[in-house]
Write a structure and sequence with these properties.
This protein is mainly beta. Helix content is 7%, strand content 45%. The chain has a single domain, classed as Porin, CATH 2.40.160.
Length: 494
């Protein structure tokens, strides 16, 4: 039994490596492992110090955006040519400090976080959806949360000797490629849940059973979960199929009528009422098992009910998504180039008057990795054809050149932003007679591991507007324009 459990644990590590090897851009690994300055010092002095974990990381990112809607500013929408400001430049800094302690059958972990923004013109409290009796507030931007608790949990169990464990407290949830549930690490605040998770692990499969509520960032106040918005589910992984990683999941998101007004001015818009159930699965090739080829196939179906506003009746949820991806790596060529192609589809709502809601609910994803790094779109009413060209010129450097072409899945539905909100102002709306072609995006991302504890990253993205956007912003007062995005980022671990 111990050997089987060890095998599965090792397989889980292989799975994590696969997520870095294929598909979206991944930062280069450090040249050698780094345990943290204080950890290395203490462990060299005393072998019993291995039970302790002291460390953290600091991240600084400068972003420059042109053609982006500025949250909270009247008339400012994505791709607007004139008539409202659509240029924003700002600096984001994030500091995380953690301490952990591990015994044979239990461990505890706590992580504090400080997220700051400088010169960000976006409103922190955009009041969307509108909450009666509240007003929007400028604050320091939607990615500012000056001091708070990101994680604090206790784990009971030891998978080397027993198949069951329990993890309870504030924690990140991350599954698959994070298309539906992710830690949202790109964001300056990130995402965590106040949750309980039971893990069952044996030689055939590992499964997480969890339930929790998303923590809502509130700058200047202690972050609290929304008790009216709950995510529950089971996510299982098996390595028993030859050459293949199999994942299956069932997820339930249950939000009541009070969910979108629990906090008077949430930084992140809260959901309307819904009871949405997602049944899905994912197949992925194991690293190196298919020679130079790799593939991923994922699909999910949603049922339940959904209310579009705080007062509207609930509609039957009937939506789906799927992703097809394949790639080839030239292992013997310089920089081991990989060429990949991906197609992602998420359903839209064909007719809201028929009592059915057909828009796929993107749940709690890390969308930054998938539908253009400029962060305009989410997996809702979307078709995305993606071409990927990746290079590793040196072990410390990774480069990715990617192109996207976007269409609406259904022109009877809206174009949704990266946060899952429908674009309904400034010219956008539901226009069935408009062309379905939204536009295309070209991205270039590069990263370099400077030392085993520091990393640099930079990127540029250009979004070419398509006919749908041009038609939406065709009024003489605005017109459309392309958008540009540049970022430079430095990360230091300690």
């Amino acid at each position: 039994m111990k050997n089987n459990l060890t095998y599965l644990t090792a397989g889980a590590l292989v799975l994590a490596a696969l997520e870095q090897a294929h598909a979206q851009y991944a930062p280069p690994p450090p040249p050698t492992p780094f345990q943290g300055f204080l950890n290395e010092y203490l462990r060299a002095q005393n072998p019993y110090a291995n039970q302790w974990d002291f460390g953290g990381d600091a991240r600084l990112r400068f972003e420059m955006k042109e053609g982006f809607g500025i949250q909270g500013k009247a008339g400012s929408v994505d791709f607007r040519d004139h008539g409202a400001e659509v240029k924003n430049e700002y600096l984001l800094t994030r500091l995380r400090l953690h301490v952990g302690y591990t015994e044979k059958w239990w461990n505890v972990y706590a992580e504090g976080q400080s997220s700051l923004a400088t010169s960000d013109e976006r409103y922190a409290y955009a009041n969307a959806p509108a909450i009666p009796g509240t007003t929007k507030k400028l604050g320091y931007g939607p990615e500012s949360d000056q001091l708070d608790l990101h994680q604090a949990y206790v784990t009971l169990g030891n998978h080397k000797e027993f198949p069951l464990s329990l993890k309870i407290g504030r924690q990140e949830l991350s599954y698959g490629e994070e298309r539906l549930i992710g830690a949202f690490g790109w964001n300056n605040i990130g995402r965590s849940f106040d949750a309980a998770k039971v893990r069952w692990q044996n030689s055939w499969f590992a499964a997480d059973f969890f339930t929790g509520q998303p923590v809502v960032p509130r700058d200047g106040q202690f972050d609290m979960p929304n008790p009216y918005d709950t995510l529950s589910g089971v996510y299982a992984t098996s390595l028993k199929i030859p050459k293949t990683i199999l994942e299956a999941y069932f997820l339930a998101r249950n939000a009541s009528r009070d969910a979108n007004k629990y906090f008077s001015s949430p930084e992140f818009p809260q959901p309307t009422a819904r009871d949405i159930y997602t049944l899905g699965g994912r197949l992925k090739s194991k690293l190196g098992e298919l020679g130079a080829w790799d593939y991923t196939v994922e699909g999910a179906y949603q049922f339940g009910d959904y209310a579009a506003t705080s007062t509207s009746k609930r509609l039957n949820q009937d939506a789906f998504m799927f992703v097809l991806q394949g790639g080839y790596t030239f292992a013997d060529a310089w920089a081991t180039p990989r060429i990949g192609l991906e197609y992602a589809y998420s359903s839209g709502d064909e007719n809201s008057a028929d009592g059915t809601h057909g828009t796929f609910d993107n749940l709690f994803p890390t969308n930054h990795k998938f539908y253009g790094y400029a962060d305009f779109l989410s997996l809702q009413n979307l078709q995305d054809l993606r071409a990927i060209y990746q290079l590793k010129p040196t072990p410390r450097m990774s480069v990715s050149l990617e192109g996207h072409a976007f269409w609406l899945a259904d022109t009877h539905d809206a174009l949704y932003n990266v946060g899952g909100g429908a674009r309904t102002t400034g010219g956008y709306g539901v226009n069935p007679k408009f062309d379905s072609f939204v536009g295309s995006e070209l991205d270039l991302i590069a990263g370099y591991a400077v030392t085993r504890y520091s990393q640099l990253e930079a990127g540029y993205g250009h979004f070419f507007t398509g006919k749908y956007i041009e038609q939406s912003l065709a009024a003489p007062a605005s017109h459309s324009r392309d958008a540009d995005w540049i970022y430079v980022q430095a990360t230091i671990k300690f």
